[in-house]
Amino acid sequence: MAPGIITDLIVIGIIVLSGLFALARGLVKELLSIASWGGAVLVTLFGFLPARAIARDVIAWPLAADVAAGAALFLASLFIFSFISHFIAKAVHGSAVGALNRSLGFIFGLARGVLVVIVLYLAVGWAIGQSDQPAWFKNARTVPLAAAGARLVLALVPEDMRKMFPPAVQPEPRNRPLPTANPKEREGYRPTERRDMQRLIEGSQ
Question: What is the pTM of this model?
């Protein structure tokens, strides 16, 4: 089997598995899961300083105290948020909108799989560059599609961050200069063409 085909199968597998996983969980649970992780990150960021002060009173090594404070805060908040989201998602899953919830979850999962593929493409493209690309990368039919998606994603990020990635995935410039006309094209008719036109006019009179 060609290396490019293996890459295509992996890409398709990522997207399909993400869609099926979201189909089983439903859109509400997927969104609540993301919200739980985001909430845990926010709780850790805003509560780290008070938690660190308490941890350093208990643990003598400052680095270990900081790691323990951050990990405990994140895991505890993630557990609480996940516990709440589980019951909300379970109630929606068994309600009348359960089928719609799963269908929308499948669409969400496919979109998430595409985003994962784009992120993987950016990471691999940044690592291997544009020269001497392996066959499993340059021969895959899904790579140009991932590159097009990467250009759309990079168009949303600051310009300083775009420079970190290969030129092949850079978005098109918004203010592209208009092509200048060739000066030779503005000279009008050549003398031979003018004589032929004059003969045609005289012959029709």
Answer: 0.64
> DSSP states of 99-114 as a string?
HHHHHHHHHHHHHHHH
Could you tell me the two tokens for 179? 């092509």
Q: Which residues are CB-contacts of 3 (< 8 A; sequence separation ≥ 6)?
A: 134, 135, 136, 139, 140
Model pLDDT for residues 129-164, shown as the tens digit of each residue: 777 778 888 888 998 899 888 888 888 777 766 666
Closest by CA to 118, choosing from 4, 3, 15, is 15
d(CA 64, CA 71): 10
Instruction: Report CA-CA distances (Å) from 40 to 53, 56, 83, 114.
Output: 19, 21, 12, 25
Nearest to 124 by CA among 141, 146, 153: 146
Note whether 108 and 18 are within 8 A (CB).
no
Take residue 199 and report the two structure tokens written for it. Answer: 């003969």
DSSP SS3 for 35: helix
User: Looking at residue 182, what DSSP letter applies?
Assistant: P
Q: What is the 3-state secondary structure (H, E, C) of 118-164?
A: HHHHHHHHHHHCCCCCCHHHHCCCHHHHHHHHHHHHHCCCCHHHHCC
Length of the chain: 205
